[in-house]
TrEMBL record, chain A:
Top-rank taxon: Eukaryota
Native source species: Drosophila grimshawi
Descriptive protein name: Exosome complex component RRP40
Major localization class: cytoplasm
CDD domains: KH-I_Rrp40, S1_Rrp40
From TrEMBL, chain B:
GO biological process, one term: U5 snRNA 3'-end processing
Protein name: Exosome complex component RRP45
Region (Disordered): 355-415
Biased composition (Acidic residues): 405-415
Length: 232, 415
């Protein structure tokens, strides 16, 4: 990920990407669009680049648009036939089948109630069909997916979720030095945290929320102070 | 920050609610406050009379008072009208909350109606121009700009501050003709008050006996029941709104009432102080801030913590003040009662603090306000109001004068 950040606006022609495209095949991520032989931005935000050839716009957003394979946190809303309705922050509520849990059968149903938190993977995401979730991988094991017990949960911008999830994020490592904790980050802008005591969890949640308005550049600076936030 | 900062409403999942319950049990709040600690209240007055922006933490409210001449209702031909309107549409959460939103607006409206109209805090008779023909219709519009809990307090404080800030033009009614004087011809007139009510909100949880004051939205949504108490500056109860599922005993409610009465008094004092400062600022030309400044937050803010801290140091050490001035600044704190300055209660708190923990204050509370808070309904406030009415003619035009005498009255009562 390159450090140079040029801000693009919707409708702006992004010549820097076009230049790269002349030499090799490139991948346009969210926020960039190809119009004839030009590359045009469709969202406002800093232009990001990942080696070798991926470009996208890191726009500030809170509304989640489901995409296949995303790991998300959802709130169970209701039971509906052999499905649960799950709120994942998208325009439409998602659904998850009773059978999409490890070792679940028609007789042995998972016990979920409205208000429960689910860490799940998006199986299907289509503009015309409601998104479908699963809590098992292709081997039928739950892995890290499933119901999240206890802990605290809060909603944030999608950017904060992405920020924490990127490979080289210093924040989680910085907190790790202060206290042991568990965290689940959904790319739909929802974060679940759990530490040993209530007080620690509160501090942890507050520490992560302070990162909300941090850019990639400031985050290192803030991470230095996270210890003091946790103390408070 | 005048934008809806949390697009998704917190407190909707089970884990949030159980977590808040367990945090309350251990006396932990997310913003590090104590259970009886309030967020700082900040007031900003606009260029127009009766425009007030208020922020309490992330909760932001804009109140605007306007008036015009209309006809009175047939039942009360000699009284002006007061109309209150809350608009919560500025806050649009993205989750499915439309139903709760409408509900919220209704409760908020009814609370304001009861706090300001049913308690008859404005002297509506003074708004009469010609009986059964022409009266002033005062309208308060409250716009919720951001909702982070405790809209009740935010809107009542904003409404009261706006009403107190408001000036209406003078009119004369001669030979069946109304003449409205412009600001240049005659000075604008402030509204006349009989008393000054504000509300204080408490959240009660099943897991804890200690109610939380001034809840954030998360705390509010996780609460089992919410108690809203409106007190006026004479510490008379104007409105009590208690609902929800948590069993609350008399003791808890009395404890809340006790705290709320003190808080209301401090708040009204704060509003008066803020108004004074605003009046001072208006003396200087080019110092008036418009709506844009208000929303951009370039206008100066009058903070409760800041103003009342001064209050605690200056006003309530009347005799000692001169002596102390020669000594160091630390001295007044020590001489004064050991109030944690951050908590910002009026020094009256100290009188109560000694008796707060035991049940003893329950009956003792009465002498302060001639009627027990629970029993006091708007009608019971007569002694004070009569006093106020009588004095009105002398105090005629300047509110400031009226304010002074009010506080004197209160002081004598308490002592």
């Amino acid at each position: 990920m390159s450090a140079n950040t040029s801000i693009v606006m919707p409708g702006e022609r992004v010549t820097s990407v076009e230049d790269v495209a002349k030499g090799k095949r490139i991948i346009l991520g969210p926020g960039l669009r190809r119009v004839d032989d030009k590359v045009v931005a469709s969202k406002a935000g800093p232009l990001r680049h990942k080696e070798p050839n991926t470009f996208w716009v890191d726009s500030y957003q809170r509304r989640y648009v489901p995409a296949r394979g995303d790991l998300i946190i959802g709130i169970v809303k209701a039971r509906a036939g052999d499905m649960y309705r799950v709120d994942i922050g998208s325009a439409d509520t998602a659904s998850i089948s009773y059978l999409a849990f490890e070792a679940a059968t028609k007789k042995n149903r998972p016990d979920l109630n409205p208000g429960d938190l689910l860490y799940a993977r998006v199986l299907n995401a289509n503009a015309d069909i409601e998104p479908e979730l699963v809590c098992v991988n292709s081997n039928g094991k739950h892995g890290k997916l499933g119901v999240l017990q206890d802990g605290f949960f809060f909603k944030c911008s999608l950017n904060l979720g992405r920020l924490l999830l990127r490979d080289s994020c210093p924040a989680l490592a910085a907190i790790k030095d202060e206290l042991p904790y568990e965290i689940a980050v959904g790319v739909n802008g929802r974060i679940w945290v759990k530490a040993h005591s209530t007080r620690e969890t509160v501090g942890l949640a507050n520490a992560i929320m302070t990162l909300e308005h941090a850019g990639y550049a400031e985050i290192d600076k803030i991470c230095g102070n996270l210890g003091s936030v946790l103390q408070a | 920050m005048f934008m809806n900062s949390n697009l998704f409403e917190p407190g909707k999942s089970k884990s949030e609610r159980t977590f808040v319950q367990s945090a309350v049990k251990q006396n932990i709040r997310f913003d590090g406050r104590k259970s009886n600690e309030f967020r700082d209240v900040k007031l900003t007055f606009g260029a127009d009379w009766g425009t007030v922006a208020l922020s309490m933490g992330d909760t932001k409210v804009l109140a605007q008072v306007s008036c015009d001449i209309g006809t009175p209702s047939s039942a009360r031909g000699n009284e002006g009208t007061l109309h209150l309107n809350v608009d919560i549409k500025g806050v649009a959460f993205l989750d499915e909350v439309q139903a709760t939103h409408d509900q919220r607006q209704l409760t908020l409206n009814s609370l304001l109606e009861r706090t300001f109209r049913s308690s008859r805090c404005l002297d509506l008779e003074s708004l009469c121009i010609a009986t059964e023909q022409h009266v002033w219709c005062v309208r308060v519009d409250i716009n919720v700009l951001n909702h982070d809990g405790n809209l009740y307090d935010a809107s009542t404080i904003a409404a009261l501050a706006a009403l107190m800030h408001f000036r209406r033009p003078d009119v004369s009614f001669i030979e069946d003709e109304i003449r409205t004087y412009s600001e240049r011809e005659r000075e604008l007139m402030p509204l006349l008050f009989l008393h000054y009510p504000v509300s204080v909100t408490y959240c009660v949880y099943k897991s804890s006996t200690q109610p939380l004051v001034d809840p954030t939205l998360l705390e509010e949504n996780a609460a089992d029941s919410i108690i809203v108490l409106s007190f006026n500056s004479y510490q008379e109860l104007c409105t009590l709104n208690a609902g929800g599922t948590a069993p609350t005993n008399v003791r808890t409610i009395m404890q809340c009432a006790h705290g709320a009465a003190r808080r209301s008094k401090a708040l009204v004092q704060f509003i008066r102080k803020a108004l004074e400062l605003d009046a001072e600022r208006r003396e200087q030309p080019m110092q008036v801030f418009g709506l844009m400044d208000l929303l951009n937050e370039t206008a100066p803010k009058l903070s409760f913590k800041y103003l009342m801290e001064e209050e605690a140091e200056v006003d309530h050490t009347p005799d000692r003040a001169r002596v102390i001035e020669q000594k160091s600044d630390v001295e007044p704190m020590q001489l004064e009662e050991p109030v944690p300055q951050a908590q910002m209660q009026t020094p009256k708190k100290i009188l109560a603090e000694t008796t707060e923990d035991d049940i003893a204050w329950l009956p003792q509370e009465q002498p302060v306000d001639e009627a027990t808070p629970t029993a006091a309904k708007p009608g019971k406030a007569k002694p004070n109001r009569a006093k106020n009415k009588g004095g009105k003619k002398q105090q005629s035009q300047t509110t400031k004068k009226q304010n002074d005498s009010d506080s004197e009255e209160e002081v004598t009562q308490i002592l």
